Amino acid sequence: MEGLEIVWLSKDFARVWADELLRIKNLIPTPPWTKDILLNDSWADGKYGKGKWERSWVALLNEQIVGLTLCWEKPAEEGTLYTTNSLYIQSMAVDTPWQRKGVGWQMVARVLDDARERGLLYLNTPNPMLVTTQTNSADWNQGVINFYIKCGFRIIGATEIHDRTDVVLAQTV
Q: Residue 24's domain is classified under what CATH number?
């Protein structure tokens, strides 16, 4: 798409553009985020979120924010589907008018390219490494699951979370 740029999401950029980033992030049908959640450096007492400001991306089209990908380095967790350290796509959202126009595809490609180029910055991992994500397995969310599969991810399993079942997807880079 002409004029589309995928640029690094710094914390300074997020502070300035928090309202617009949250508007796009909150298109995802999960509990809405606040500015505090968006600007947190980590979650769960530092267990999650490492590398968020080095690994997240914004899609700009003619200097307008049209997409957002929040990533961080996820440590392996015994007894889960996350058996190795990975780069985790926590959230990806594209503004409604720009969906199905290649924005999401280009954001995922940037995440994968970055993972290939830099590996993990904070967690040790063997090469090749995994890029992972997790999403609701409900029928209404099949389009998201299919999107990730078309981007080269594979379903590695399902996990119960709160009152739903999620699928975990991974791609080796």
A: 3.40.630.30
